[in-house]
Design goal:
Layout lengths: L2 E2 L7 H11 L8 H14 L3 E5 L2 H11 L7 E4 L6 H8 L3 E4 L11 H9 L8 E5 L8 H10 L3 E5 L7 E3 L5 E3 L8 E5 L12 E5 L2 H11 L3 E2 L15 E2 L10 H11 L2 H19 L6 E2 L4 H6 L9 E4 L3 H10 L2 E2 L11 H5 L8 H9 E4 L7 H19 L2
Parallel strand pairs: 1-15, 3-4, 3-5, 5-6, 6-9
Antiparallel strand pairs: 2-10, 7-8, 9-10, 11-12, 13-14, 14-16
Length: about 400
């Protein structure tokens, strides 16, 4: 059987939860939405959560709520999915890329500070910081930089549900808890830690942003009597902003609630898989693992969420083809956004971000999901070792 790089896991409990929602009085805009939001916010430790139709919608609404417009310049990493940059363009803003850390693939915060210090204050409006592969960014350091230059922060935690880092006071900071960010976004695409089929979530500790997001999620419309400019009766509503239909239905939320109940078990399994890969690949010439080993990170107070397990090799194309020929469907995350034709037309070009481009030339995402069987992982490891033994003459 083919082995994909990622795969959803749907249990009988999940199916029963969805069936119950289908049999209820609400398929959308019902009580399961608020229940999912409350449980999700509680899990990550944030005050508020807003469920939306997908991760891209979460990014778009976040940019809108923070006031991104045609005068905005927003900094992000070139190693991310295109939606991370696109959300700024949706609002008319300008995307500014910055270099990555070659050890983690995350935005290099020292390079970021250098970029900011080289421009007049007020040049940039905000930062979108990505927890690539599930490795939590140092948001405490990012917040210090952001405060110095009066920037907001969106944490793209789509890869990092359940991940955490430990701050300078020794406190565990869970991805999406809002301690150091204005907003955080999550995705519930099938290959993510939990799935709703398609779906997303925005978390925040800012009540004003929370209320803004609720309105923008539903056409910019409100029926709240306290917010109405007029009131003609119980039927009356007002469109007070240009919003979107980015709602997540109750059926999807029911699935999300059920999936969230076993997130910790799934995270434990992902880290077990990472430990096995770490041991298998530590002595293979020509192959490196992105990030330090899982056990080393844990000892440092970092909880990698392992949405992806990424290796680096200059023989990436050959290894990719070899594994696909053997039914192991590895993937590449990501093509640098500034090299996409759309962003090239806006001025992006090869050589802009050498570390990001070198990372892209070598990165490969291996199968990583809780349902990955031990025999399947052995097959993946065996084929990778076979490739390197053959191609390096060992």
């Amino acid at each position: 059987m083919p082995i994909p790089y990622g795969k959803q896991s749907v249990s009988d409990d999940d199916i029963q939860a969805v069936v119950a929602a289908l049999k209820s009085d609400f398929l959308t805009q019902g009580p399961k939405v608020a229940e999912f939001e409350k449980k999700f916010a509680s899990y990550v430790g944030a005050k508020y959560a807003v469920a939306v139709s997908n991760g891209t919608a979460a990014l778009h609404l976040s940019a809108l709520a923070l006031g991104v417009n045609g005068k905005s310049k927003v900094i992000t990493t070139p190693i991310t999915f295109a939606a991370n940059a696109n959300c700024v363009r949706y609002c008319g803003g300008e995307v500014i890329f910055s270099e990555i850390d070659p050890v983690t693939g995350l935005l290099d915060l020292d390079a970021l500070r250098a970029k900011l210090s080289g421009a007049p204050k007020g040049t940039y409006q905000g930062l979108i910081i990505v927890d690539l592969a599930g490795y939590p960014a140092d948001l405490e350091k990012a917040r210090q930089i952001a405060d110095e230059y009066s920037l907001w922060i969106i944490e793209d935690a789509c890869h990092a549900l359940g991940g955490y880092f430990t701050d300078s006071a020794g406190v565990k900071q869970i991805c999406g808890n809002g301690r150091f960010t204005d907003l955080a976004v999550f995705s519930f695409h099938p290959v993510k830690h939990i799935t709703t089929g398609e779906g997303g979530m925005i978390t925040t500790n800012n009540e004003a942003l929370y209320k803004k997001l609720l309105m923008l999620r539903t056409h910019g419309i409100t029926k709240n009597p306290a917010l109405l400019k007029e009131n003609h009766g119980g039927w009356y509503y007002e469109m007070q902003d240009l919003g979107f239909n980015y709602r997540l239905p109750d059926v999807a939320c029911a699935l999300g609630i059920s999936q969230l109940a076993r997130i910790d078990t799934n995270l434990k399994r992902r880290r077990e898989i990472a430990d096995i890969y770490d041991q298998a690949f530590k002595d293979i010439p020509g192959l490196k693992v992105l990030d330090e080993p899982n056990q080393t990170l844990t000892a440092k107070g970092i909880g990698h969420a392992y949405h992806l397990y990424i290796i680096l090799t200059p023989r990436r194309k050959e290894l990719y083809d070899y594994l696909h020929q053997n039914g192991i469907f590895v993937q590449v995350h990501y093509i640098p956004v500034h090299l996409q034709p759309y962003y090239r037309a806006l001025g992006g070009k090869s050589g802009d971000w050498p570390r990001a481009e070198k990372y892209y030339e070598e990165c490969l995402s291996l199968p990583m999901y809780p349902a990955l069987k031990e025999a399947e992982q052995r097959q993946v490891i065996g084929k990778i070792k076979e490739f390197f033994n053959t191609n390096y003459g060992h």
